[in-house]
Amino acid sequence: MQKNPVQCQFVAALDSIVGKWKPMILYHLLQGEPLRFNELRRLLPDITQRMLTLHLRELEEEELVKRVIYPQIPPKVEYSITEYGKSLSPILESLHQWGAAHVERKRLKEAKNEQTETD
Amino acid sequence: MQKNPVQCQFVAALDSIVGKWKPMILYHLLQGEPLRFNELRRLLPDITQRMLTLHLRELEEEELVKRVIYPQIPPKVEYSITEYGKSLSPILESLHQWGAAHVERKRLKEAKNEQTETD
DNA sequence: TGGTATAGTATGAAAAAAGGTACTGTAACG
DNA sequence: CGTTACAGTACCTTTTTTCATACTATACCA
């Protein structure tokens, strides 16, 4: 935690969102349906078991995600978004939209550059 | 850049914001006044020259920040937020607010824990 | 003449994040 | 009887990010 209170708030918020896979995990869980460990794995094709576990544990620790173990064999564990986690929804939505516009902007710019290069 | 388009959008947005000092740099520049390199350094007491340079270059590359060099000696360089950079303002504002609430929430929880421990 | 301020760059080290592979136990399926 | 699915853990390596320190050139001030 930083000393500077303003930074501290950014850091606290970003820690919850940042991590190579966290936004996607939250995004999928925000769809509403609880998801099992391997369902999430299939939704995030390139994630390793290790990274999925680590990120889920962090999200759980911050009470953004809830983990429910069904004592069965083979095991069943369901992850779902918490009420508190839902409060992140507008932020993720804004990020998603801004990101889409940003990608499009870059794409257009590159297209323009290629255009002038072939002139 | 990821293949998954949804992730890609999050990544694009977060790349612009994330970095240990980026939100703070943007935050200060969003106050409106252009700032010189060393003014920013003084506002971010713990940043190294190297990190400030690197982050400013990245922000410049994404056209979120504008860099103006005044050919003087000793040198004078002014950094300011671009119009495009201003479009990040609502996101940073949301992050800032959510972060503040998150910090407060944790604080209360810890206080509660200490309370029950001494019971 | 020596110190200060400006805006950096260069180099190497340390820390943090992410990835890769192998392994666990049990049940159901074929 | 071998394979698959489940939800992980253990261990080690690689990549990325950040940090620390020294260095540059020039002008001004005392």
Automatic annotation (TrEMBL), chains A, B:
Read off the InterPro entries from this record. HTH_HxlR, WH-like_DNA-bd_sf, WH_DNA-bd_sf
What does the record give under GO molecular function? Answer: DNA binding
Q: Which UniProt keywords apply?
A: DNA-binding, Transcription, Transcription regulation
Q: Name one Pfam family in it.
A: HxlR
Q: Does the keyword Cytoplasm apply?
A: no
Q: Which domain of life, per UniProt? A: Bacteria
Domain HTH hxlR-type as annotated: residue spans: 8-107
Q: Extract the PANTHER family matched here.
A: TRANSCRIPTIONAL REGULATOR, TRANSCRIPTIONAL REGULATOR, MARR FAMILY
The entry's protein name is Helix-turn-helix transcriptional regulator
